[in-house]
Amino acid sequence: MAFRTLQGNMNLLLLLTVCCLHFMTDLSLENGTAAISHREKCECIEGTGSVQWRRITDYTIIPKDPLCNAVQIILQLPGQRMCLNPESNQGRKLQRCWKRIKFNTQKKKLCLRVNRKKAPKRPKKH
Question: pLDDT truncated to tens, each residue of the chain (126 aa)?
């Protein structure tokens, strides 16, 4: 007799739990708290086309993620931070270099070096 009462209580508890979970899920979907309704949380809303290379002291490249569906390039300039458009020529060059150094933060200063073209050597006059 005691076993039947315990089994009946467990069935009732299970039924109540399932109903509560179903009710809570419906409420969360109505309030817009479902995972689907996340807003984009991008740091960079708008980016500039280019910045002088010598002014850039540091940079951060944030790849696409579930919260922001865009690559973000944040440049550190003396006294300010600025976003760079990842589709601009400078943005693409910086991304290529970042991939070439295999995302190594120790080597990221290599990407900021300005490649100056050397003048061709002139033959010496005798």
Answer: 555 676 666 676 656 565 545 555 444 444 433 344 445 689 998 899 999 999 999 999 999 998 899 999 999 999 999 999 999 999 999 999 999 999 999 998 999 887 656 667 777 776
Write the CA distances from 11 to 8, 17, 18, integer angstroms.
5, 10, 11
Q: Interior CA angle at 80 toward 59 and 63, to 5°? A: 30
The pTM assigned to this predicted structure is 0.60
d(CA 87, CA 57): 21
Q: How many residues does the chain have?
A: 126
How far is the CA of 106 from the CAs of 37, 45, 77, in angstroms?
A: 37, 28, 19
- Radius of gyration for the chain, computed over Cα atoms and rounded to the nearest angstrom: 29
